[in-house]
Amino acid sequence: MILAGRYAEHRRWMIRSFSLIMAGVMLRVWVPLYYGLAGAGVVNFSFETAYAAIAWLCWVPNLLIARAAAGSACTRTAGERRGTRPGFPRTA
Known about the structure:
Layout: H1 7-39, H2 47-57, H3 60-72, H4 78-82
């Protein structure tokens, strides 16, 4: 996409990719949070039940935030609208 000059599309895919990569980080945030809440007696369901929810909480909210961010971050420059890149000749 970059070599073809489709910077906005590349930016959107990189934002999505980053959000999905962060799912592993979020897993490591949610699991200790569950153990802390379970230890305090706030939640009273098994780890297996919690892990089913945590598996979804790791990536779905990230992807929704990324979708909103990708929509707002994709303003194109004048060079991109013309189909040219600074310093590069226009290709057919």
